């Protein structure tokens, strides 16, 4: 096979793309990955999941040092914020992880081609190289894994100065006096939490009746109260109609959905966090005849193949939650399928996590979805106020909620708010993957004292028999 011929060419090196490339190479397929940037890892590693979690963690430590350490006998006189050092730590984490992906590419003999890729047709990819010139790659299989991009509201331009996206919110050189976050989803609440802890006044404007659209209603309302208790201002039923910027700041104008009364808020920084859109610009989809839906997502079949033979798509560019781990699972499954193996993804059991403090995590159906479907169910809840480890750590906010089928007891959904919910949800995901019942979880021994005991107790509560409540 010549240097320009490959079994698999992946366009995009985010979690879906680089994972697909690695698994394809592991399966013995000659693989290349085309990435427009020199660093691998896509949005997630460079300007998304990883840097945001670095700032979330360090800002949590800073706030804990101010408000929690004294109660544990730790004095913090003279505490100061070094924002530059905090940002340097974030950048270090990004460098380490993107470098790790580059190492894995070399280890698995994957060719990393830096440039903008476009599809000529089945079996052919053109690359406008970043350092000049071009290459045309022949590929038996082409995988589109170009991810997503930030989006804004009509008529409001993200200028990167006064109006920033989540990317811009990661690199602010000083703590804003007042930040307005447009959108009460995971990204807005996470980045808003960071700057709130570091000293900003933060106001969230959410169009719907509660933050975290799409999550369990009880969780949304309870979590909103927790954020307000932390000092975050949340205005729901607020439709933003415009933002005006000056050298000194910005003014956000919004209408209340209930009575359509216009109100304005002056601030230093506006964070636009109303969602993301599939990134397919310049791929040549229309020219090749690849079908997309009304939301701009590439339409694929069960095996991730588009309507054009030999061209596949995974991750944020196709239907489903825009989550890194969803893209990773799809990348592995597709790479296995291309090697003649059996790839598998259970899209009904994809966890979602909001990395605030406390964290929010969920998998499966919400009560609202089950009511709409007419499914009879039972609910078991257990609060962290009754969990010994949470009590010892003074992290008692939140609860675990398990929803089980009323007839079969099969677990249909698990929703939780708590300090370690992002890790705890894995147990629920595994249980649901194996079709477990609430009784199965209740009869499984959990180590004491741990936060996960709340999961066991919530399962017991499905039968109204929790021990510690």
Which key phrases capture this entry?
5-stranded mixed β-barrel, 3 domains, FAD/NAD(P)-binding domain, 469 residues, Enolase-like, domain 1, globular, alpha/beta, 14 helices, 5-stranded parallel sheet
Measured by DSSP, the beta-strand proportion falls in 25-35%
| CATH homologous superfamily (4th level) name of the largest domain | FAD/NAD(P)-binding domain
Number of strands: 21
Write down the overall mean pLDDT.
Answer: 97
At CATH level 2, the architecture of the largest domain is 3-Layer(bba) Sandwich
Q: Tell me, what's the shape?
A: globular
* CATH T-level topology of the largest domain: FAD/NAD(P)-binding domain
Task: Quickly count the helices.
Answer: 14
Radius of gyration: 24 Å
């Amino acid at each position: 096979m010549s240097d320009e011929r490959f079994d698999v060419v992946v366009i995009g090196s985010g979690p879906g793309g680089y994972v697909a490339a690695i698994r394809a190479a592991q399966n013995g397929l000659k693989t290349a990955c085309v990435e427009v940037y020199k660093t691998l890892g896509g949005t997630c590693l460079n300007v998304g999941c990883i840097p945001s979690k670095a700032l979330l963690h360090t800002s949590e430590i800073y706030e804990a040092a101010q408000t929690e350490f004294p109660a544990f006998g730790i004095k913090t006189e003279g505490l100061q914020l070094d924002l530059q050092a905090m940002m340097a730590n974030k950048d270090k984490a990004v460098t380490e992880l993107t470098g790790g992906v580059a190492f894995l590419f070399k280890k698995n003999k994957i060719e990393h081609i830096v440039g903008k890729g476009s599809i000529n047709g089945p079996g052919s990819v053109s690359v406008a190289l970043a350092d000049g010139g071009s290459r045309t790659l022949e590929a038996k299989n082409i995988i589109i894994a170009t991810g997503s991009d930030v989006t804004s509201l009509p008529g409001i331009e993200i200028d990167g100065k006064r109006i920033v996206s989540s990317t811009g919110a990661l690199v602010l050189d000083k703590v804003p006096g007042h930040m307005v976050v447009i959108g009460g989803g995971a990204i807005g609440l996470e980045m808003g939490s960071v700057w709130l802890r570091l000293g900003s006044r933060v106001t969230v404007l959410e169009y719907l009746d509660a933050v975290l659209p799409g999550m369990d209603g009880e969780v949304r309302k309870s979590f909103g109260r927790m954020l307000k208790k932390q000092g975050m201002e949340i205005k729901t039923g607020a439709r933003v109609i415009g933002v005006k910027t000056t050298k000194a700041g910005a003014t956000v104008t919004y209408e209340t959905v209930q009575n359509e009364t216009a109100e304005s808020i002056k601030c230093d920084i506006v964070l636009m966090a109303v969602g993301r859109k599939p990134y397919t610009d310049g791929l040549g989809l229309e020219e090749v005849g690849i079908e997309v839906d009304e939301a701009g997502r590439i339409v694929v079949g069960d095996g991730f193949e588009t309507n054009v033979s030999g061209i596949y798509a995974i991750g944020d560019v196709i239907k489903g939650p825009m989550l890194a781990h969803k893209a990773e699972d799809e990348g592995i499954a597709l790479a296995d399928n291309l090697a003649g193996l059996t790839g598998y993804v259970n899209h009904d059991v994809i966890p979602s996590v909001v990395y605030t403090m406390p964290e929010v995590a969920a998998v499966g159906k919400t009560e609202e979805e089950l009511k709409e479907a007419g499914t009879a169910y039972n609910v078991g809840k257990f609060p962290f106020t009754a969990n010994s480890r949470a009590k010892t750590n003074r992290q008692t906010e939140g609860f675990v909620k398990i929803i089980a089928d009323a007839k079969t007891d099969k677990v249909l959904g698990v929703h939780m708010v708590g300090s370690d919910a992002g890790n705890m949800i894995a147990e629920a995901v595994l249980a649901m993957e194996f079709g477990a019942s609430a009784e199965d979880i209740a009869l499984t021994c959990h180590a004491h004292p741990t936060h996960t005991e709340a999961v066991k107790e919530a399962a017991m509560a499905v039968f109204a028999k929790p021990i510690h409540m």
